[in-house]
Amino acid sequence: MFRQSKKRVSNRRNFADKKDEISGQFILGGTTTEEEQKLYESLYSSKLSFYELPPRGEITLDQFEVWAIDRLKVLLEIESCIQRNKTMKEMEMVVKPLLQKLLPFHTDALQDRKKDYYSHFILRLCFCRSKELREKFIRSETMLLKIRFNMMTSQDQTRFVQSLHLPMLQFISEEEKSELSTQLYQTISGALQFQLNLSDESQRRQYFQQEKFIKLPFESVIELVGSRQVFIKKGFAYLPQFQQLNHIANEFSNMLSVELAKTYQNLPRLNEDDRLLPILHHLSSGYAVADFQQEDQWGQASQGEITAKSVYTDKISSNFPLCARNLMAGLKINHHLRYQGRQQLSFFLKGIGMSVDEALKFWSEAFTNGGHLTMDKFNKEYRYNFRHNYGLEGNRINYKPWDCRTILSKPRPSRGEFHGCPYRDWNVDKLTLELSQGMKLTPTQVTSVLDSVQRTEYTVACTKVFEITHGGQTNAEVNDQTHIAHPNLYYERSRAWQKKKETVST
């Protein structure tokens, strides 16, 4: 699976004299491009795959990590949408741009197919380690399959279904359909009207004439039986083709659950490879879906508006996430922040476009206001620190704003400290009061946010608050990801939305 490295340890048992084996191997013998082409043509007889066989061939360690990260970004976005109760249509609007950018599947390019196939198996290694990780991975991968399936043409859908060779996925004959036509039409008429928006009776009749039906044991689609969306006869359910995705998704989930358990059993055999373990640990620890580390995006929404004075105005501060608001409130009350708080707020302000000169002015005025600190003491004890944050002192490193993952990895704030994430660090009463009174959320909305907090999904909670306080907009036009895992991303989206709203009103 990987190219030989000169630094590779020669006595690694996992990879010695086993090139012909498939199962349990993580590095396999190379294949030629022609062989790979044939392999992926068989694995991808349609645009999708059930990933039934492990990949063969060679990829670099860079490909190993980058491909896995790209797929993980898609899956984490899907998981966030699920937790925020997005509809299938809303989810597709969010995920489609991501798929085109990170995980294209409409092309027949060998590289795209390899990326899709390898990235799936790499993430199996990452998320087979606990029941919770396995459940999230299965849920996200199954939803990804559904979204991709809906993006395909009907011909590609049929080709994919036929490639699965599922024993229970057989279409009934025209004779049997004609015999049960009355019952079948009565059963699916409502679904045709509300799911496919066929409001006209003649349209529904015409669609029914062309529709194929699958006959399978009713327990395979039990979720459709309870809502009477399928016709039942002698223990068999008659599933219309436009609803076959439910059955396919169930089969995929069951298969993936079994395979993840097998992967977990074979995981100890991987522990000798010191190249892969750091990468897998990094991925399975929850790689941030929106690292927001592109420097050209920093301060883009503010365009030079951020000064030592303007940062206090409602036009700017109203776009701050709760963590930045908390830091600003602590600074205003105490005229001082301890080290972690200074670093977190300093990097955030740098990220939204505050220059070093304005930063020094901002911090010196905040610390010396009211005689709490003299300017000489500020210059002696703090000036170097803030210049260092801008890369003007010491090793001259251009430090980036902290993302949510970095903030959550820092020590929790003690009394008199204001750094960290309020969704994690505040008690329920304080958070409820701020959400209801400070951010004007309704009791139902507050409960939804607190549910995410209770599940330790702090970035999901923050994303929910953003959407609620910004008119329920996903703001897909601002960025092709809606999940917010960076304070500066929250600000950039909020300021862009605010400007758009101002333009519309004028």
Using brief descriptors, characterize the structure shown:
506 residues; mainly alpha; Transcription Elongation Factor S-II, Chain A; 3 domains; elongated; disordered N terminus
Question: Could you walk me through the main structural features you see in this protein, from its secondary elements to its overall organization?
Answer:
With 506 residues, the chain is mostly helical. The protein has 3 domains: 13-163 and 250-284, Transcription Elongation Factor S-II, Chain A; 166-243, no CATH class; 295-505. Helix content is 57%, strand content 3%. The protein has helices at residues 33-43, 61-83, 88-102, 110-127, 131-151, 154-164, 174-179, 181-194, 201-210, 222-226, 244-266, 276-284, 314-317, 322-334, 339-351, 356-368, 375-381, 383-389, 404-409, 422-425, 428-438, 443-454, 458-469, 487-505, and strands at residues 170-171, 213-217, 231-233, 236-240. Helix 8 (181-194) packs across helix 9.
Fraction of residues in helix: 55-70%
Low-pLDDT windows of residues:
1-29, 287-296, 474-479
Strand line-up across the major sheet:
1-2-4-3
What is the helix tally? 24
Distance between the termini: 58 Å
How many domain units?
3
Q: Radius of gyration in whole Å, from Cα? A: 27 Å
- Which structural class best describes the helix and strand composition? mainly alpha
Strand content: under 5%
* Major sheet summary line: 4 strands, antiparallel
| Overall geometry | elongated
Instruction: Tell me the total number of β-strands.
Output: 4
| Nearest-integer average pLDDT | 83
Series of H and E elements: HHHHHHEHHHEHEEHHHHHHHHHHHHHH
Binding site for [4Fe-4S] cluster: 323, 404, 421, 462
Pfam families: DNA_primase_lrg, DNA_primase_lrg_N
GO molecular function: 4 iron, 4 sulfur cluster binding; DNA binding; metal ion binding
Function: DNA primase is the polymerase that synthesizes small RNA primers for the Okazaki fragments made during discontinuous DNA replication.
